[in-house]
Amino acid sequence: MKFFIFIKLIILSCFFINVRSEQKPTLIKPNAINGNPYLSKSKELEEISFENLRDILVRNNQEYSAALQRLNQATYDLKATLKLRYPTIDLQSNGLPSYLVGDEYRNPEFNSSTDFETNQLEASLSTVIKWDIIDPERKPEIAIKRLNVDKAKNALKTIIEDLTLRAQSQYYQLQTVRAKINTSKIMVNSSKKSLEATIAKNKALLAPRLEVFEAETQLLRDKVLLNNFYRDEAESIRKLSNTLGLSDNFLAITNDQISIKGLWNNSLENTKKNAILYNQKLKELNLEIRLADKRIKKSNALIKPKFSIINTLSGSYKLGQEEVSPPIQNNDYRKNMNNTIALTSEWRIFDAGRSKELKQKNISRKKEFKAKYNKENNRIKERLENSFTQLVSAKKNILNSYIQVIKQKEILDISDKRFKAGVTNQREIINNQRDLLFARNSFIDAVSFYNNNLFSLKRLSGDLEITPCSNNIDQLRDVSNLDIVSDIQYDPCDIDFQEFNKFEMSSINYEENKLEESEAKAEVEEELEEVKAEVEEELEEAKAEVEEELEEAKAEVEEELEEVKAEVEEELEEVKAEDEAEFKKDNQDLNIYSEEQIKQITSGINCKNFIIEQNKIYCWDGKKFNLYKK
């Protein structure tokens, strides 16, 4: 007994070991971290890789699962149709059992006995074996079912290829948005530092308030871009998760960096040939044409004869009597056993033209799919040529935008040094930061567009492969010093994507560099304090000099005022002496007249102010004295 228990334990342990060895490794890394505020905190982020997209789709996508079930249905349908080649066996029974009771009365003029009764219990069973040895509809029907299986296989392949291309495109879109988020984070941190430095200089009276406003505006602009990219990332993650068929508790995410996925070294003509041979859409249309041919044959078979071999074996057992004069003997019984074998035929010689109309319908259907085949063929050629053009264009855009990123980074470094030296202002820094951001985003878009067109060509061409990059850093060519005026010939794999992504990764770790930044900030503040003290000292000296100059100027002004005052007083004295002399002269003229004579002379004068000089009267009109005339 113990020996048998020991054997059972060994068998169970081997079973569990085999089960564990057969388990496939997980394609998703759990517990990924992402700081996107638009993603649900209740859902776990699962990190996925580009190479596992197809396997995840096969496991989880419901559209693929439905297509797989349609293939299974077509396969079962074909197997069921193939069974028509074999004979069938039917078991039939008209009474299992049946009980018959009857009472019959006959005309005595013609029958010696008039009363008959029936009381009988019967059991019968028959076996029918039928084999359609010649069936004109069977062969085209089997061919149709085979083509339906091929259609389901082709549809399944089309669906998985389309889903893979869609998932790859969404993967690149997510990768692009995350790269732009990294760039935007760098720009936001840079704008924060620039704002802090500008505020410190403004407090030290080294920068105007306008530059502070410009730095604040740039920070807000970078925050808006970062917020928009966070929104786009959340939408891309949801789309990719839905395509991959992940459960509601998980979201797909990737930490892969921007890179070129390979090169397309196949010619356009070779790509067209393979596309025509292996394209699933053309295969589907070709299968529809072949199906129409088989349906035409099936229509012709409707008016052809059908031959079958039928073997019928029947037996019955009857207990009692039927239609006998009473009394009935209930113990009476009868047994019966028969076997019949026959060659039968069935031939519909007239169907009112139904088979002919069905044939014309399938002929028309065949012509329809031939036209669709030619149309799809031309459309595929057009798509291939467009994809080739877009791939070449994306290749040029990658190089131009990459060189632009390098040049713009150098421009920003030079502007930063000029700003620190006081040669330029904050506006130049802000403009160059914005240009660098746009240059990096243009490069990221160009790489994503290139990869999408690369895999679109792979999808259209069938079995042609993408040539992967060698990933040999020692062989990378410096593309930053190329002659941009001429037509540049280069390999996209020559670009150092590690260096491009290193800029992002090193700049994102703001918390790790916080201590260094705080030390640098303290040094800057200390220098600003020294500059502020020097400026205040210079201001005090300038203030003392200005006050001393003001005192000297005040003394000089007072001295000049005294001199002017003396001159004015002298002039006033002279004017006063002249007025007195004129007044005395006028009085002398008046003294020659008596008071009564003066009254008579002045009694008719209409002006308010007047003078008498040398026996003449002068009247004042507001501006001067005029000779008065009566």
For this entry, give a set of tags.
630 residues, 5-stranded antiparallel β-sheet, 3-stranded antiparallel β-sheet, 61% helix
Summed up, what is this model?
The chain has twelve helices and ten strands. The chain has helices spanning 2-22, 53-60, 62-82, 138-203, 209-244, 268-278, 280-301, 354-420, 426-461, 497-508, 514-591, 595-602; strands at residues 44-47, 88-92, 98-105, 115-134, 250-253, 306-324, 333-346, 610-613, 616-620, 625-627. The strands form three sheets. Strands 2, 3, 4, 6 and 7 form a five-stranded antiparallel beta sheet that branches. It has a three-stranded antiparallel beta sheet with strand order 8-9-10. A two-stranded parallel sheet has the order 1-5.
Give an overview of the whole structure.
By secondary structure, this protein is α+β, with helices and mostly antiparallel strands. Helices cover 61% and strands 14% of the residues. The protein contains 12 helices and 10 strands. The strands form 3 sheets. Strands 2, 3, 4, 6 and 7 form a 5-stranded antiparallel beta sheet that branches. A hairpin with a 2-residue loop joins strand 8 and strand 9. Helix 4 packs antiparallel against helix 7, helix 4 packs across helix 10 and helix 6 packs across helix 8. The radius of gyration is 56 Å and the shape is elongated. The N terminus is likely disordered.
